[in-house]
Design brief:
Largest sheet: 2 strands, antiparallel
Number of domains: 1
Strand content: under 5%
Shape: globular
Helix content: over 70%
Order of helices and strands: HHHHHHHHEHHHHEHHEEHHH
CATH topology: ABC transporter involved in vitamin B12 uptake, BtuC
Strand order of the largest sheet: 1-2
Length: about 350
């Protein structure tokens, strides 16, 4: 009991330190640094949503950009003022039932997640009977279909012109507040019976079914929850950028999130959080690679997308030499810290 109490105190202290650091960063960072900090929180949310499907349940999904697009457009259309909608939809008027709707950001965020979850359920019901590469191709196709539909529904999404003038609701507190809630939800989910069932399906579907686990029910549940969180993450991203268009939600967006969970560990909450922060910061730090470079014998006039080539190479190296990522399927535990502090003898005796 004493050890459990100590771990609770340490956890609360860690949360308090995190909040204090966010307060300090929010007040001292310039606008560019603050934007990176916000992106870190958003990518934590998106990384965990994909890791739930790919890492914890073992479903190879590549359609996350589609769920993000649904969430972003839903939230944007619900929060934009009628005047702003009229300015955006100058080629073709917006459908009447959306023209005068304007609601606060929080309910719009929840509705965005629910819309993505509904599509996740509708898409998941047929395609989750597929496995491995076939499932990946089917979900990738779904994401592309969503993008093409959004490009051609001028009276709903404004087509290829996208939506501009979105309120920039997403700040440090929205970004990291949602990320914190998702982390907490994932911790409790994975410790419960559903989390154990997800992991059993990941390890061996036949054995899981033999143990009485309803494979389809748990797969669709995982897929729907992941879609909900991705929709919320897409809405946060849209209200950070201030503008959205279908080209934002190409496969490259899913690749960025996949990169995070592979680096962090496919099946690790801790690894996803660490990798989301590291990858987001590195992506911004390496942005100079896309411009002109004059370094000793290496000179270029600017190669757009070069930093993504570097990240792709890093991903290949990670898969080749360190397939389980930073954390593998492990999680951070206060027990490890306490055992290190107490020493090997006390670790064995438990005193």
């Amino acid at each position: 009991m004493k050890r459990d109490r100590l771990k609770q105190i340490l956890t609360l202290s860690a949360v308090a330190v995190t909040v204090i650091l966010l307060v300090i960063f929010n007040s001292t960072f310039d606008s560019y640094q603050k934007r990176i900090l916000i992106l870190c929180g958003i990518y934590v949310t998106l990384g965990l949503s994909l890791n739930l499907i790919n890492g914890f349940t073992g479903l190879f999904c590549l359609g996350h950009a589609g769920f993000m697009a649904i969430g972003a457009y839903t939230s944007a259309l619900l929060t934009m003022s009628p005047e702003m909608k009229e300015m955006n939809f100058f080629l073709k008027p917006i459908v009447p039932f959306l023209a005068n709707i304007q609601i606060p950001f929080l309910p719009a965020l929840l509705i965005a997640g629910l819309m993505a979850a509904v599509f996740g359920f509708l898409i998941g019901a047929p395609v989750l009977r597929l496995k491995d590469d076939y499932l990946a191709i089917a979900t990738l196709g779904f994401a592309e279909i969503i993008r093409v539909v959004f490009t051609n529904t001028q009276s709903v999404t404004n087509g290829s012109l996208g939506l501009k003038g979105l309120e920039r609701f997403t700040n440090v507190w929205w970004s990291w507040g949602i990320a914190g809630l998702v982390i907490l939800f994932m911790v409790f989910l994975m410790r419960g019976s559903y989390g154990r069932a997800f992991k059993a399906i990941r390890e061996d579907e036949i054995a899981a079914e033999a143990m009485g686990i309803d494979l389809f029910k748990h797969k669709i549940l995982s897929f729907t929850i992941g879609a909900f969180v991705a929709g919320v993450g897409g809405a946060l991203l849209g209200h950070l950028m201030g503008t959205i268009d279908p080209l934002m939600f190409r496969f490259l967006m899913t690749f960025n999130i996949l990169l995070i969970i592979v680096f962090g560990g496919i099946g690790s909450i801790t690894g996803t959080v660490i990798a989301a922060i590291a990858v987001t910061v590195l992506m911004e730090w390496l942005r100079f690679m896309d411009g002109p470079i004059n370094f000793l014998f290496f000179k270029t006039d600017g190669i757009p997308g070069l930093r993504m080539v570097i990240f792709a190479a890093l991903l290949m190296l990670m898969i080749r030499f360190y397939q389980k990522g930073i954390m593998g399927t492990n999680e951070f535990s206060w027990d490890w810290v306490l055992n290190k502090i107490r020493g090997p003898e006390k670790k064995v005796t438990g005193k």
